[in-house]
Amino acid sequence: MAADVDKRNLEQEKKISPQNGQQIPGSRSWIYKRMWTLLVVCAVPLFAFGIKYYQDAQLLKRHEESVRTLGAEGFFLFSSLDTNHDLYLSPEEFKPIAEKLTGITTPVDFEEEVIHDPNGETLTLEAKMQPLLLDSMTKSKDGFLGVSHSSLSGLRSWKSPAVPSLSFSASQFRVFLPPKNKIEVGDTWWVIPSELNIFTGYLPNNRYHPPTPRGKEVLIHSLLSMFHPRPFIKSRFAPQGTVACIRASNDFYYDIVFRIHAEFQLNDIPDFPFWFTPGQFTGNIVLSKDASHVRHFHLYVPNNKSLNVDMEWLYGASESSNMEVDIGYLPQLELRSTGPSTPSIIVDEQGNIIDSRDGSSEPIKFVFEEIHWTSEINREEAARRLEVTFYPFKKVSYLPFSEAFERAEAEKKLVHSILLWGALDDQSCSGRTLRETVLESSPVLALLNQSFISSWSLVKELENLQQNPALSEKARLHLEKYSFPVEMMVALPNGTIVHHINANFFLDQTAMKPEEEGATFSFSGGFEDPSTSTYISFLKEGLEKAEEYLAQ
């Protein structure tokens, strides 16, 4: 028995002890795993460093090749289009160029028209208006000399809203709800897309009656018809249409800010057309996410500028007839809800009517809960996002006159100042061509952001500023250089104008004739057409002249 025990012990020692130079298989496997783990841990950062080094080397190589191929100016243009700086143009980066070249904008899917629920909630809107101040028009200064009475007949007779009060189904306001891919606070989208661009030009002037509205256009047309019976919900000039932005949101409600570019035809046959174009309509709507309830609605023409309406009228029946242009001030044009939308009937849990609203009974009394937003941006930021959607040139901030010079002094930059007859960032503008071409081109945007503080001002506002002791000298210097209709200037922070060019002269210099050799299309998506290159030269000349002034 002792021999058996000794034999078993010997066998166990053989199992746990290495013999003849061999290791136990389990031990060898554990060591290999530790070694591989260590190698992997060391190799990962080395591999990542190698990839980064290779990518940087390739990027540097592409950068050098690009500069050799395009030259410094050409590479500057390319870089302004290459938003992610990978030295490749993706389809998304090329999209604005394609739209400018083809004149075709990516289509927007319209929702089907909503069938209104007769038992749904109803919203009542009231229209208010103060007519245009005739003495704010330039032509009033000479007593409208040469302006026929028939031309202004529609303007003079429009003194009150066409429909002072009107009820709508709450579900009609579904058109303001965002599409499925635009549900975050701050998102913007086209409710009614613009159909005009630099290639299509503008719509005819010789028209009296608007086209039949379709789809989402129906509600906008109905709203504006409360002011005047002939609203054109798509203006003759770009950018036209309606844009919306989510200002605030919670689980049940949106607060949506919107902006509309539309106009009215005030005259009818036999008088020649008279176009009345407010700078913009804006406002907001607070509605439930299923559009069954509207808590608040407000639409108005902003009156915070000294001039806010553009007017154009024909002196003949054809498109080639002479046209007069003027601008004026409209104190008030607005729609406002009288209260939240309310149902016409109230039913119990079984669907039985327990109360109703009809013409012979008192209105149903409701108490509404207060809305608390879980996510929001301020109204100014929402308005800015709408503005940039309409006007890409506003990707550069344009500051008020006084603030621009203060910022330029603080940042040691020059002021890029535009002085004009009508507002640059709405439809009462005398600088349409400028803002739709060079000011929104990528190279100009890049240079303005890098070296300038930008500002635009109305002539009338600077005339008023001459009474301001702190700003009178800067205003005077600007007005001395101004020529109708638009003057672009480069100024020192102290207000000294070092360089300027008139818009008409600028456009004449950059106008392209088909017969000119080497003529190319002019558009603002980023290709350096004559307008863009000329404006960049103007800005660079301003920088050079400023150095001379500062050196004195």
Automatic annotation (TrEMBL):
Transmembrane segments: 35-54
UniProt GO cellular component terms: endoplasmic reticulum membrane
Stretches for region Disordered: 1-23
Keywords: Membrane, Transmembrane, Transmembrane helix
GO biological process, one term: skeletal muscle fiber development
Keyword S-adenosyl-L-methionine appears in the UniProt entry: no
Basic and acidic residues bias locations: 1-16
Protein name: Selenoprotein N
Species assigned in the record: Amphilophus citrinellus
Lineage, opening ranks: Eukaryota, Metazoa, Chordata, Craniata, Vertebrata
